[in-house]
Request: fold
Amino acid sequence: METTRLKIAVQKSGRLLDGSVELLKECGIRINNGKDQLKASAANYPIDILYLRNSDIPQYVQDGVADVGIIGQNTAFEKQKRIEEVLPLGFSKCRLSIAVPKHVSYSGPSWLQGKRIATSYPNSLRHFLQEQDITAEIHEISGSVEIAPNIGLADAICDLVSSGSTLFKNGLEEQDVLLQSEACIVKNDKLSAEKQAVLDQLTFRIQSVLKARHNKYILMNAPADKTGEIINILPGMKSPTVMPLATEGWNSIHTVIEEKQFWEIIGQLKAAGAQGILVIPIEKMII
Ligand SMILES: Nc1ncnc2c1ncn2[C@@H]1O[C@H](COP(=O)(O)OP(=O)(O)OP(=O)(O)O)[C@@H](O)[C@H]1O
Ligand SMILES: O=P(O)(O)OC[C@H]1O[C@H](OP(=O)(O)OP(=O)(O)O)[C@H](O)[C@@H]1O
Ligand SMILES: [Mg+2]
Reply:
């Protein structure tokens, strides 16, 4: 019997492609495809990859042409299709915001009343304006939105912001944030049980990779009489491992901590007598 294959849509080229392919690779999925080949099969896993335009993926997933897709949460919200978010993926983080020329004294969303706003996200903007009880003219354009106020096309824009440098270079200032976004997996709402099982396995692998990315394995040496104090500082997964060093009166202490916690506690560890602290990346983490 042929095994069920899950069809997963990823962006053909653009902001999401590298993160999507890298993640699948780290999940141990080998994709054999030549350049310009828009469908590829994983050699060692029951999935097929479809390379599509990002903005088309929600429709394809709703229709079942693809079973799942990797898109930004902003696109999932904008397209309003019958698709379900399965898992946020932690990359391509950005936000959808209102921005206006920097000389404008923006008094809040009510400033937008009666104005022209350029955007590639008309549904998300309409939703925001309705919520704020504001009537404005939505001018839909498909790219280079930040140029619109400078060429007299609009008074304000509603577009994606990440570092803010595109806004800055175009003399605009970010005002209200409509939504925060990161890449996510979405799925068709009527997946067969077999396909759901393949997706569950894939999700398990992805979670192990994502968890590992946020954690570090750390080890350090410490005098035996300081070991208790150091253990109290460490917020590890469980209890840390303590092993005696060849030098009498010294221990090696190992544990796993979130990277962001590490920077918070490094000073405390040193002050408590830890030496030779090593921080090592983790490849996969299963808990
Ligand atoms: N500057 C950014 N920083 C981080 N993530 C971003 C940024 N710009 C866009 N994204 C995210 O990447 C997604 C894809 O953006 P990209 O510009 O590559 O494609 P697109 O022009 O929206 O789509 P298409 O593939 O249909 O041409 C966006 O929907 C958003 O989630
Ligand atoms: O805040 P920043 O870090 O400057 O990023 C924001 C810019 O990035 C995206 O455009 P992109 O480069 O994807 O170009 P596009 O309009 O062709 O999609 C987005 O539409 C903004 O223009
Ligand atoms: Mg873009």
